[in-house]
C-alpha cells in the first residue's frame, strides 16, 4: 500500500469517527427533536401551551410573575430568562418536559405533570415533588 493511500484511509477513518461523535451528541437529550417544535413567546398571564411540542418563554422583562402551562407532548418551559419575579411553571399533560425556573432567585415553582419532567431550579424548594428529575443550577 502506498503512503498516500494509507494517509487517505486514516483521514477517512478519523472523519467517520468524528461524524459518529457529532451524531451521538446531537441525539441527546432524548425524545425532543428539533423537528415539529414550535417556539412561543408569552405576552399574557397565564400563558398556555397547546397540544404541540413547544418551547415557551416567559414574558419579556424583570419583575413580571408568570404562570406558564404546557400542554400535551414534549415541552420546554423557560421562566429563567428574567428575574425578580415569582414564576409558576406547570408541565400539564404527558410527554417529556423541561421546566426552567433557574433565574437567580428562589421564589419560583416548577410543577410536573403526568409525563416525565425535568425541573431546573435555583434551589430544591422551587421544585414540586411532581418533578421526576431535579437539577439545581
Ligand atoms: Ca417572569
Ligand atoms: Ca423568571
Ligand atoms: Ca428561580
Q: How many individual helices?
A: 1
Bound molecules: calcium ion
| Biggest β-sheet strands, sense, barrel | 6 strands, parallel
Assembly of the depicted chains: single chain
Question: How does this model look, in words?
Answer:
There is one protein chain. The chain is α/β, with parallel strands linked by helices and 137 residues long. It has one domain. The chain is built from 1 helix and 10 strands. The strands form 2 sheets. The chain has a 6-stranded parallel β-sheet with strand order 1-3-5-7-9-10, with no helix packed on it. A 4-stranded parallel β-sheet has the order 2-4-6-8, with no helix packed on it. The protein is elongated. The chain starts with a helix and ends with a strand. The model has no long low-confidence stretch (mean pLDDT 90).
Summarize the topology.
Layout: H1 3-27, E1 37-41, E2 47-48, E3 53-57, E4 67-69, E5 75-78, E6 88-90, E7 96-100, E8 109-111, E9 116-121, E10 133-136
Parallel strand pairs: 1-3, 2-4, 3-5, 4-6, 5-7, 6-8, 7-9, 9-10
The site of one calcium ion has 9 residues, from loops.
